[in-house]
Amino acid sequence: MLRKPVSNLLLNTAHKSPLLSNSRYGSTKVAVVLSGCGVYDGTEIHEAAAVLSHLTRNNVTPCCFAPDTAQLHVINHLHGEEDKSHKRNVLNESARIARGNIQNLCKLIETQSNFSAVIFPGGFGAAKNLSDYAINGINFSIQPEVEQVMKDFHCAKKPIGLCCISPILAAKLICNVTITLGRNISNGWPHRTAIDDARKLGANVLETDVSEYIFDKKNLVFSTPAFMYDGLFHEIDDGIGAMIKFMLTFSTQKYQN
């Protein structure tokens, strides 16, 4: 069996993937905001992968962004314990998901006009790195660049897609927003307390199954439960895919009035 020389293999790892900048995809661009890499301290990887694959499946170019800031902490995902031996950076960790093709979130603020929509996958990073909801509950604050991005897209009447726990960000920022965080029942919904928190913040929270999504027509906010439900991988993928397919049918021009 012929094998590629090890030296060439090592060199190849230094090249950034063309995945997110390749002209094979359509001219429509959607921003995807990541919060690290790994469900317990960053982005839920399977949700991010579902978002990216459903965007490209619909001939849309996804462009990844993340804040250049320290993670709240590092969690050993095998044991579920905090690893205090080192620190990690949200942008650097998010680059693992984006295959190296990612930009500082401040660049999205500068180039918002180039994007048709923005999507936030879930994972505890949304509650630990994009905000401090995991620490301060309903008295939480949102990372300044994240807040600016959400406000800019909302003011521009562009769609905002939210997965898993990330709708809590909209509950904080957008008055009377309608979202879903799944179902408020014990069987299969371990993070259901977020529903009451979002309602305390003034959000209209509708209960849905994992395969469903909610569309707030007034605010152009789309949300789906994803891993708020202790579901199977394909169930989470189906819900995110349905949300994105419907989300992409709406242009900003439809809701200018």
From TrEMBL:
| InterPro entries the record matches | Class_I_gatase-like
Q: May I have one GO cellular component term?
A: mitochondrion
- Classification via SUPFAM superfamilies: Class I glutamine amidotransferase-like (SSF52317)
Source organism superkingdom: Eukaryota
Q: Which PANTHER family match?
A: DJ-1_PFPI DOMAIN-CONTAINING PROTEIN (PTHR10224:SF17), ES1 PROTEIN HOMOLOG, MITOCHONDRIAL (PTHR10224)
Q: What is this protein called?
A: ES1 protein
Native source organism of the sequence: Nezara viridula
